[in-house]
Design a protein that fits this description.
The complex is a heterodimer. By secondary structure, chain A is an alpha/beta fold. Chain A is 35% helix and 26% strand. In chain A, a hairpin with a 3-residue loop joins strand 11 and strand 12. Chain B is mainly alpha-helical. Chain B has a domain at 55-258. Chains A and B meet through helix 2 of A and helix 1, helix 8, helix 9 and helix 13 of B.
């Protein structure tokens, strides 16, 4: 058997107006974990879809076990032993775990055409046990956590006897500990001879897990390296084509008086006794494991939900926002985690998006003043360097980083005092990250107070002045960034969790 | 680890019992309503009356089965009232032309008409990606128009129909009314199909997450087509039975009836946004709506109030549903220690 299980040669794929892959190659060895990296839009997802048969390449050749194959659709790739776990888990929330795993290749009784449930549940129980899953095969998929859903996706891949498993950014929604579980599962699969293509923006994923790494940039193949032979800096240069001398260009700015203070805020089932404050020009990082209650605290401050008890002060005056529009009017801007869902109307122009939360400023007696709207939108887009032909471009046509800028611009129209940014860099590539940090620096320098919710340790340490760590709904530590280390933050974020884990082990 | 597993299993059980609570609540409501009816009118709990009620609800049930399929995929079908009219009219006119036609051929003819209409809708939705509400709205008008064109605006009345034809719905087999029997058989087949066959489960899948269905190679378009075609066939069948039962075919037969059918599904807890719904719920929802339609006159409720009461019950059912769901969530939260 040849050592190379999958090889792609000179693959080109074009969409109207875009060349998504331009003569790329890729080679996967038997039983290796191979990282695929590159900025958003580099062509990784397109390559995956070519391998899984969702897209047909315009030219080029795919070799499986040294033989040329044509993959005409998802069923073809399943038959050839290729399975993909997509970035956004592609599950059926209303069906059971077992059904999610076997949908597409259920075993049926040849006479009655009925599904053989007993056989199916037994097989699923076996699969789940081999993956150390802590849930039942009959559980409803929608009731599981994201990490559990990913285990189901992996079980699904194994159920079709996949020899090649592609994982598209599986760790993005996971906590550190859940990621660690996933790493262990991936290593277990590798040891059983499964080959894994692992896509991730997190460099630590790659160094922890992969033995080789391939980098794409702007639809081109840049190179393949052994992971231990390429440094972090070299890798970043390969991905962005230029060196980012400093990824976190935190600027020192004068810190003013207190802008926002939260006192003993509580909401049953979500968080308890949360207190912190942030001053003008200060960037306060809020960190902790996913599910520690950070987002929920922010939503309560912004008036999306209501806290049961506790008080919030904005510039010394008590704030009781029952609705986001009130918080917005008082000067609190919130950038939600799921920006595409909550932040932007994709089919609208940039200008219309920017003025949406503050329409009354641009209208008289209910009539819109389009000229004022356009001028303001243009001024803000220029200030934030939104890359577009004009403010009449649809937001849907912008890149992820530029969409972020439009969301920030929306908030800047109003008379803001505090910005709450929930995971501002989640799922964006290295280049766009730098741009977002630059925006944050600019806002801090202009005297705004910023609360940044983030799970990424480097980002927390690199961008903030102070750090609030949450654990299971409570503030477990408030640290000065200058004296904080990765270890102190982590231990504050997970002490109890780790203690429990060791007990069980 | 074992502690965690147990907690997970308990949680799953709580969730599942919350689900079946919905059907239980519906059942309790039906029992209470029956008791109230019985207090007002002692003829409610007689065999004759219950058989009457079931006979009058059978057609609604047959249609609700098809509509449940459509709703599970996240779609809707507004054309079925018109399909009932066209299928019924076509079979009645054939009966006029060939008085001795075997009634089973009439049924097949009606189903064929429904199949054609359903196939066209399926094609529009699955192949040309027309939104179901638009596609079926358009077809509703086309089909209703065809009914008038075909009949030239005339009625086909009872004296023009053969006894064999009207016996389709008034006759009995083994002592059970034919309509009820047909409905029961369809419910049973459908229960097996939706819960125990690949195709049935995949219909849930495409409603639950259409994009996921595409990447996992489920033939979404073909299934969508199948669902609308099935709905069409059932509506065609219902059309023939309708005309046979009321012994009259008219241009405006079953005008607006699709909304009754959708109401039965909603009462039965079938989600309009797709992906979920159970046959047990559908049966109860259909019976409840049937009771409201047929039993209110028995207790001397003015016909003017019937529609009003129906609307109130539908909203009450939906609101209870929401409240139960929210309560379950709150209970789950209380258990989460902080």
């Amino acid at each position: 058997m040849p050592e190379t299980i999958l090889e792609l040669r000179d693959i080109t794929k074009t969409f109207p107006g875009v060349r998504a892959l331009d003569g790329v190659r890729f080679e996967l060895k038997r039983g290796e974990i191979h990282a695929l990296m590159g900025e958003n839009g580099a062509g990784k997802s397109t390559l995956i879809k070519v391998i899984t048969g969702v897209y047909q390449p315009d030219s080029g050749e795919i070799l499986l076990d040294g033989k040329s194959v044509a993959i005409r659709g998802p069923l073809d790739s399943q038959r050839l032993g290729i399975a993909a776990i997509y970035q956004h888990v592609t599950c059926y929330p209303d069906l059971s775990v077992a059904e999610n795993i076997f949908i597409g290749h259920e075993k049926v009784n040849p006479v009655t055409r009925g599904i053989r449930w007993k056989e199916l549940y037994a097989r699923v129980a076996e699969l789940l046990e081999s993956l150390d899953a802590d849930f039942d095969s009959k559980a409803l998929m929608g009731n599981l956590s994201v990490a559990q859903q990913q285990i189901v996706e992996i079980a699904k891949a194994l159920s079709s006897n996949a020899r090649i498993i592609i994982m598209d950014e599986p760790t993005a929604p996971l906590t550190k500990r859940e990621s660690e579980d996933l790493y262990r599962i991936a290593e277990g699969l590798r040891d059983r001879g499964v080959s894994i293509i692992f896509i991730s923006h997190r460099l630590e994923d790659m160094y922890r897990l992969a033995s080789r790494v391939t980098v794409f940039r702007d639809a081109h193949f840049v190179g393949t390296w052994d992971v231990d032979k390429i440094s972090r800096d070299e890798l970043i240069v390969a991905m962005v084509g230029r060196s980012i001398t400093q990824l976190f260009p935190k600027r020192k700015v004068a810190i003013g008086e207190e802008a926002l203070r939260v006192e003993a805020l509580s909401r049953t089932g979500y968080f308890k006794d949360v207190s912190f404050s942030v001053r003008k020009g200060e960037i306060l990082a809020m960190t902790g494991l996913v599910g520690a209650g950070r987002t929920e605290v922010c939503e309560a401050i912004y008036g999306i939900t209501k806290a049961d008890s506790g008080r919030i002060f904005l510039e010394g005056k008590e704030l009781r926002a029952a609705h986001p529009s009130e918080a917005l009017a008082k000067g609190i801007g919130y950038l939600p985690e799921d920006r595409l869902k909550q932040g932007l109307v994709l089919e609208w122009a940039i200008a219309a998006n920017i003025t949406l939360p503050s329409l009354e400023r641009f209208s008289r007696l209910g009539w819109m003043n389009r000229r004022d709207e356009e001028l303001k939108a243009r001024e803000l887009s220029e200030r934030l360097e939104v890359k577009a032909n004009s403010v009449h471009d649809l937001v849907a046509t912008l890149s992820g980083g530029n969409q972020q800028k439009v969301i920030v611009a929306k908030l800047l129209v109003g008379d803001m005092k505090v910005f709450i940014l929930d995971e501002p860099t989640k799922g964006v590539d290295v280049g766009a990250k730098a741009a977002i940090f630059e925006i944050m620096n600019g806002l801090a320098a202009a005297g705004y107070a910023i609360v940044m919710v983030s799970s990424e340790m480097v980002e927390v340490l690199g961008m903030s002045d102070r750090i609030v760590v949450m654990r299971e709904g409570r503030v477990s530590a408030t640290l000065d960034t200058a004296s904080a280390t990765q270890e102190t933050i982590l231990s504050a974020a997970m002490t109890t969790a780790t203690a429990v884990a060791t007990e069980n082990a | 680890m074992s502690g965690e597993t147990k907690a997970g299993a308990t949680r799953a059980r709580v969730m599942r019992s919350g689900e079946s609570f919905r059907e239980l609540g519906l059942l309790v409501f039906i029992v209470l309503l029956s008791a109230a009816f019985q207090l007002r009118n002692h003829r409610f709990f007689t065999i004759a009356n219950i058989e009457d009620l079931l006979t009058n609800t059978a057609i609604l049930g047959i249609l609700a089965v098809g509509m449940m399929l459509v709703l599970i995929t996240g779609g809707i079908d507004l054309s079925i009232g018109a399909t009932i009219a066209l299928a019924g009219m076509t079979s009645a006119l054939t009966g006029v032309a060939i008085p001795n036609i075997n009634p089973f051929l009439s049924i097949l003819e009606g189903m064929a008409v429904g199949l054609v209409i359903g196939s066209v809708i399926g094609l529009l939705v699955a192949r040309f990606k027309v939104l179901p509400i638009i596609a079926t709205l358009g077809m509703m008008n086309i089909v209703r128009g065809l009914t008038y064109i075909e009949s030239k605006g005339q009625w086909v009345s009872s004296y023009q129909m053969s006894a064999k034809f009207t016996a389709l719905s008034t006759g009995t087999t083994l002592g059970v009314n034919n309509l009820v029997l047909i409905a029961v058989v369809i419910f049973a087949l459908f229960w097996y199909f939706i819960n125990h066959t690949r195709t049935g489960r995949r219909i849930y899948a495409i409603g639950s997450n259409p994009e996921a269905a595409d990447v996992s190679g489920i033939p979404r378009r073909r299934l969508l087509w199948l669902v609308y075609a099935t709905m069409g066939v059932l509506a065609g069948l219902a059309g023939v039975l309708w005309v046979s039962k009321f012994a009259s075919a008219q241009g405006d037969t079953a005008l607006g009836y699709e909304l009754n059918v959708i109401a039965a599904c909603v009462l039965g807890g079938i989600s309009i946004s797709g992906g979920s719904g159970k046959v047990s719920g559908l049966v109860l929802g259909t019976i409840l709506l049937g009771m409201l339609n047929n039993a209110l006159p028995l207790i001397n409720v003015s016909p003017f109030w019937q529609q009003f009461i129906q609307g109130v019950v539908i909203l009450a059912a939906v609101l209870t549903n929401v409240a139960v769901k929210r309560n379950n969530q709150r209970l789950a939260l209380r258990k989460r220690e902080i």
